[in-house]
Amino acid sequence: MQDYHDFIDEVLVDEKAIETRVAELGAQISRAYAGQELLIVCLLRGGLTFTADLTRHLTIPHTLDCMSLSSYGVGRYASSGNVRVNLDLMTNIEGLNVLLVEDIVDSGRTLAHVLHILKTREPKSLQVCVLLDKKYRREVPVEVDYVGFDIPDKYVFGYGIDIDEHYRHLRFIASADMKKYKKTP
Amino acid sequence: MQDYKDFLAEILIDEQTLQTRIKELAEEINRDYKGKDLLLICILRGGIVFLVDLMRHINVPHQLDFMAVSSYGAGARQSGGSVRLSLDLKTDIRSKDVILVEDIVDSGNTIAYVLEFLQTRQPRSLKVCTLLDKEGRRETPVQIHYRGFRIPNKFVFGYGLDLDDYYRNLPFIAVVDLKKYQPPA
User: Fold this and answer.
1) pLDDT digit string, tens, across residues B40-83
2) How does pLDDT run across A81-128, given as a tens digit for each residue?
3) Cα separation of A3 and A102, whole Å?
4) How large is the C-alpha radius of gyration of chain B?
């Protein structure tokens, strides 16, 4: 595997900035749902690190569930739009406050699909929290209620976000120079 | 939902001790897997918090994958014999060095089943890393290669481990006083 130093373009959000912002989001969500209960839905696999850290800052009662999705199209570069549910929720969300937690919103296609699926199950409320928002890439309008950082249209990795399944463990979010990146065989 | 302080018997492992030990485990893994092709497998949902923190200290190249299993029939607090695989791995583990990351090994029934199942796919190596080991409860022998803590046969929660799906976000491992605990309605 290539050392990330070989292809890193720049650190977009450093560890300290992530920690501070995640704590702020946790506090904001705790205030918004004060006196209520919340189901956190983590979208695997990218949203995992963010979810684990975010929930540690929640002061309200909450439960956790996970969904795993994939596109029927090809990889991360192009989303066909249709979404396959690999792992559905264990929880029946009817009548619950649901907060969907994602690492990144890009075209918005996947997110729009999931929201549509979840809405048909009639939750009491359904909101979205994303760590990173690539607004310029949006193709489908989706309402995002909590945003960690707006980021430019760059290929990013770290803090749960992978490149070909690697580099998720890095504590910061960086952009990659894909001309220098070589896929591990 | 009840405040955890209402039924807290004791804090078994505090935050600092957990974090120190997790770093040590990761360093052991870093030494053992230098130059190998490591895949970390997390069993949802209890193992998430441990996995995220462990992974941040792992600096050998590694990938991440998930499995979700449930028991046929038996309730949340018992581990029945048969295991239903609700989410299988995305990765083909043949010839990979695999570590199964678990929050807790109790009877060992579920993990023994999962290990046997994974073994049929012929990984190069297959090891187990668990944060907590309740050895006193073991019904099926399981070899544990990386162990965070041996704990007594007490009902524990926090740090990814839930009580009726709540309290996963607490930064420590605590023991429940079951006489004082009231499950949510």
Assistant:
1) 999 988 889 999 999 999 999 999 999 998 876 544 445 455 77
2) 678 888 999 999 999 999 999 999 999 988 998 999 999 999 999 999
3) 26
4) 16
Q: Which has the minimum average pLDDT: A149-158, B58-67, B81-90, B115-124?
A: B81-90
Label the pairing between strands B173-176 and B8-13: antiparallel
Helical (H) or strand (E) element with B17: helix B15-32
In the 8-state DSSP scheme, what is residue B161? B
The percentage of residues in chain A with a pLDDT greater than 70, rounded to a whole number, is: 94
Under an 8 Å CB criterion, which residues of A touch B?
1, 37, 42, 44-45, 48-49, 51-53, 55-56, 58, 61-66, 68, 86-87, 90-91, 160, 162, 165-166, 168-169, 171, 184
d(CA B21, CA A183): 33
Retrieve residue B12's tokens.
Answer: 């078994």
Counting one residue from chain A and one from chain B, the pairs whose CB atoms sit within 8 A come to: 72
Q: How far is CA B14 from CA B54, B58, B178, in A?
A: 16, 22, 20
β-bridge partners, A157:
A174
**Is B122 within 8 Å of B94 (Cβ atoms)?**
yes
Strand partners, B163: B166
B90 pLDDT higher than 50: yes
Phi and psi at B48, nearest 5°, equal -60, -50
Residue entry with tokens 């929720």: A89
B116, exposed or middle or buried, with CB in 10 Å at 0-12, 13-18, 19+? Answer: exposed
